[in-house]
Design a protein that fits this description.
Shape: globular
Radius of gyration: 21 Å
Number of strands: 17
Oligomer: single chain
Order of helices and strands: HHEEEEEEHEEHHHEEEHEHEEEEEH
Number of domains: 2
Largest sheet: 4 strands, antiparallel
CATH topology of the largest domain: Methyltransferase, Cobalt-precorrin-4 Transmethylase, Domain 2
Structural class: alpha+beta
CATH class of the largest domain: Alpha Beta
Length: 304
């Protein structure tokens, strides 16, 4: 449905942080790539792994974002979402559905970069604003309490691990469990940063790090930094911040990861494997895609 430029809609878009720096003339071009989409209760906007084409602004009603099948975040009037898929030219990492009768203003991300439709200077302004929104989220994440991160659940920038090295099913130490931690840290550093919480199950239950059976938490941190140096490299320690906190009377290890300035490979036997974040999961990037990703991420100004 075409977007009618009434005063209410104009004001809603104008007041959003993504569009606030545009002149009225420039905003006119944004209306060309926008349309209104109406949804019934429980109707899906998009699903996980669906190719990203639009980013959205909530006009009326409420929508719920689900990640890995868990309810994560409710979005109401004025909330903008879906921008990460547009910036990264990636698939969706979660699913969104309407909680009631609702409507969205959908902005066509493909048309945004068609210079015959939108001026390149305007497209650049929008891209910078979208990138700033993501960057501000990443910076603020370090100031969000661990309890809040747990309550909000896993997402593109937050992951839970029940332990550092203990396999609860086998009741023994397991190098594969350690490997899962190491590749997650590398993936965060290779993408846009993130926070890894150890001592938290996938469903958010706090189990603590006592099960890893270290004599004390200093020895746990020494062991972790040792395997990071061995498997990723000493220089990457500077991008990691470690804290042991008490949550629900259990100790939890929090690791805040900055985006690294150089590619972080994980040494596996006689190979070096490159991992990235694809939504709320860690992915081994195929060799055929590594060069282009590294070029864009580290040597061409990054992904914003």
């Amino acid at each position: 449905m075409d977007l009618v430029k009434d005063n209410e809609t104009w004001t809603l878009i104008r007041e959003n942080e993504i569009f606030e720096d545009l002149s009225d003339h420039e905003l006119e071009q944004i209306f060309v790539i926008a349309q209104r989409k109406n949804y019934n209760k429980n109707q899906r906007v998009f699903s996980i792994d669906q190719k990203a084409r639009y980013f959205y602004l909530v006009e009326h009603g409420s929508f719920i974002l689900s990640l890995r099948g868990k309810r994560y975040k409710t979005m109401n009037r004025g909330t903008l979402f879906g921008e990460i898929g547009i910036i990264n030219e990636n698939v969706r990492t979660g699913s969104i559905r309407a909680m009631d009768e609702a409507s969205l203003i959908a902005f066509n991300g493909l048309d945004l970069y068609d210079e015959e439709i939108v001026s390149p200077s305007i497209a650049l302004k929008i891209t910078r604003s979208l990138a700033k929104k993501v960057t501000n989220y990443l910076r603020s994440r370090e100031h969000i309490s661990t309890k809040e991160l747990i309550d909000n659940g896993e997402n593109d920038f937050v992951e839970f691990k029940a332990s550092l090295r203990w396999n609860a099913d086998k009741q023994q130490k397991d190098r594969l469990v350690e490997h899962a931690v190491i590749k997650t840290l590398a993936a965060f550093m290779n993408t846009k940063g993130g926070t890894l919480l150890i001592g938290i199950q996938d469903d958010g239950d706090v189990v603590g790090i006592g099960q890893d059976r270290f004599d004390n938490y200093d020895k746990m941190l020494l062991h972790l930094t040792k395997i990071i140096k061995e498997r990723i490299g000493t220089l990457f320690i500077e991008f990691l911040k470690f804290d042991v906190e008490t949550i629900q009377e259990e100790y939890v290890l929090r690791i805040d990861c900055e985006a690294a300035s150089t590619p972080a490979y994980v040494r596996e036997r006689n190979e070096e494997i490159f991992y990235v974040r694809t939504g709320p999961s860690t992915t081994h990037l195929k060799t055929s895609r590594v060069f282009d990703y590294i070029r864009r991420r580290f040597y061409s100004g990054g992904f914003g």
